Fold this sequence. Notes:
Blueprint: H1 2-11, E1 25-33, E2 37-40, E3 50-53, E4 55-61, E5 69-77, E6 83-86, E7 92-94, E8 99-104, E9 116-127, E10 131-140, E11 143-150, E12 152-154
Antiparallel strand pairs: 1-9, 1-12, 2-3, 4-8, 4-10, 5-6, 5-7, 5-9, 10-11
Organism: Magnetospirillum moscoviense
Protein name: DUF3124 domain-containing protein
Keywords: Signal
Amino acid sequence: MRRMLLALALLLPALPALAEDVRPSAGQTVYVPVYSHIWHGNLDAKGKPQMLLLSSMLAVRNTDPDDGFTVTSVRYYDTAGKMLREFVAKPARLGPMASTDFFVEHKDDDGGTGANFVVEWKADKPISPPIIETVNAYFFGPHSLAFTSPGRAIVK
């Protein structure tokens, strides 16, 4: 049974992704999870797990081959929901198939385990919505960890 579960776990990432139901949009507010640190390992004598600090890169990728859009806001929040900073001083235009990114340093643990970005964008007409996600990473010495966190459109 263990071998079957292990085989299944190894094969699932190789399967083709199912197509999403993507609808054109003229703008969205997108929530994106961030992991500025994660708990891991066993609990110590005080009942606390070990903490691993991660860097996080927010990627905003225009998937529309014909039209651009404007990123109007990129806010970074901590676990308690307190806004830590706004990354966009003035609206930034992204052309067709263009991308931009925003970075939270490895040493910045202010966000906590429940940190998040809220990204707002708008277009002049309905377009293919962008892909907005974070890449959370740790690369030091022989140890490395990297994973993505997809954004999800929310109702504001």
